[in-house]
Structures are given as C-alpha cells and as structure tokens.
Amino acid sequence: MVNYKRFVRSYRGIIISLVIIIGVIIGAIAGLVPVIQKIFALQSETASLSSDVSLLRTKLNYLDQLDEPTLKSYLVELAAAVPPDKSLSSLFGTIDGLSARTGVAVSEFTVLSAGSIASEAAKQQTQEEKKIGSNLLPFTVKVMGGYDQIRNFLDQSVGVRRFFRVRNFDISFADVTSISVRMGMDAFYLPFPTNLGSVQEQLQPLTEEEQNLITKVANLPLLGQTVSVTSGMQPSVSSKADPFSP
C-alpha cells in the first residue's frame, strides 16, 4: 500500500495526463463514429445515384432514337380501340355507326353499371378485369331488323376499332324480316398508367409481332370519334438539351 501511494505521488502528473489523454481519445472516437457512419452512408448514396444517372442516360439515348410522331400515332390508333376512359361518346358513336352500316334500328341503349360515370380513382378492378387486363363497361343494346341485318350487326360489332364483346343475347322474331335482339355487351377501356417504371426497369422495344398487331388494329373501321390521348399526359420538359448536365 505504501509503495502504491508512493508510486501515485511520484507519477501523479503523468497519470493525470494519461487519464486526460484517454478521455480525449474516447470522446473523439465517440464523436467520430457517427461522422464516419454518415460518410459511409453518403458514399453509398452517391454510388447508387451515379448508377441511376447512368441508367437514365442510357434510357435517354434510347428514347432519342425513337420516332415520337410514330409512337404517338400508334397510341392514337390503340386508344381508339381501347380508350383510356369509358369514352361514352365513342361508344355511342360506334353503336350508331354499326346500325347505319348494317341497316338495323337501335330501339334501346343502356349502360348497366350505376357508377359507370364515376371517377376512375374510386374504381377497383374486378377479378375478371384483372384476369383479362382491361376494365369493362357493361351495357345492353336492343336492335331490330331483318335476319341478314342482325347477323351483320353481330359480325361487325366485334370487328370495329372500339373493342366490344357480346356476353349474351335474346332473340325474338315474328318472321325473318322482323327480328328483335337484346344483347348484353362489354366495352373495353384501360386508363393510362399514372406512374413511370423504376429507374432499373429496362425499356422494351416493340417487337415485330406487336407492330403487326397495331397495324391490324389501325385497319379496323373507326365508326366513333377519335379518342384524345394528350390530355393529362404532358410531362414537364427541361429547357436543357441534356437534363443531366450541370
């Protein structure tokens, strides 16, 4: 014990200095650890952003090579067949055009869904719609005419540039010159996507098969009005030639 006290008295200054130094080192380490962690996080974020910018540059270069007027014309052709909304005006116009082409008389036309004019934001797809990949607008139409006229109406109703499908129909007739048909039908429509894909998602060019399909759709008769595809789709455009330049 005596030796210990003598040792402390002899080296008190050194011991105090060492304690102070150790305390300073511990404090510095405690303060540096969060800073180091933040630096690592910033470095990781910088690497991630650099990768995203590189991918966006690649996408931009690819998009610059595409013919925008051609893509817009494709969109207009397809939107006439499957519009981005219920487009009741094109629906009415197509039914009216079909009746004029085939000579039938339309005596009834009813949109079945009670909320069919409601906002798309409040509408949830049914299991059937999810399965086929499109929203459905159910309606009924009653037409009257001769046998050939009714047959032509049924044939042409699934071959016009406003896609329908016939769910069911009831026929009543007095003779072949006076036939009445009530049809339950569905009109297809599909809202435009509201979100862009992720940065990592690759842009897939149109295949030859897809281009041929677009040509087939464009060759179908358009009996209703053209559907606008520009409303609500104008992106914000940078004034710079290269939006990634400083």
Question: What would a concise description of this structure say?
Answer:
By secondary structure, the protein is α+β, with helices and mostly antiparallel strands. The protein contains seven helices and four strands.
Keywords:
Pilus assembly protein PilO; 4 strands; 246 residues; four-stranded antiparallel beta sheet; transmembrane; Transl_elong_EF1B/ribsomal_bS6; membrane; disordered C terminus; 7 helices; transmembrane helix; 49% helix; 2 domains
Overall pLDDT: 77
Query: What is the topology, as strand order, of the major beta sheet?
Result: 1-2-4-3
CATH architecture field of the largest domain: 2-Layer Sandwich
Number of strand elements? 4
Into how many domains do the coordinates divide? 2
What is the gyration radius calculated from CA atoms?
35 Å
Structural class: alpha+beta
How many alpha or pi helices?
7
Detail the poorly predicted runs. Answer: 234-246
Helix percent band: 40-55%
Describe the main β-sheet briefly: 4 strands, antiparallel
Account of the protein in words:
With about 250 residues, the protein is α+β, with helices and mostly antiparallel strands. It is built from seven helices and four strands. The chain has helices spanning about 1-10, 10-65, 70-80, 90-100, 125-130, 145-155, 210-220, and strands at about 105-110, 135-145, 165-175, 180-190. A hairpin with a 2-residue loop joins strand 3 (about 165-175) and strand 4 (about 180-190).
Task: Give the SSE layout.
Elements: H1 2-10, H2 12-64, H3 68-81, H4 88-102, E1 105-111, H5 127-132, E2 135-145, H6 147-157, E3 164-175, E4 178-189, H7 208-219
Antiparallel strand pairs: 1-2, 2-4, 3-4
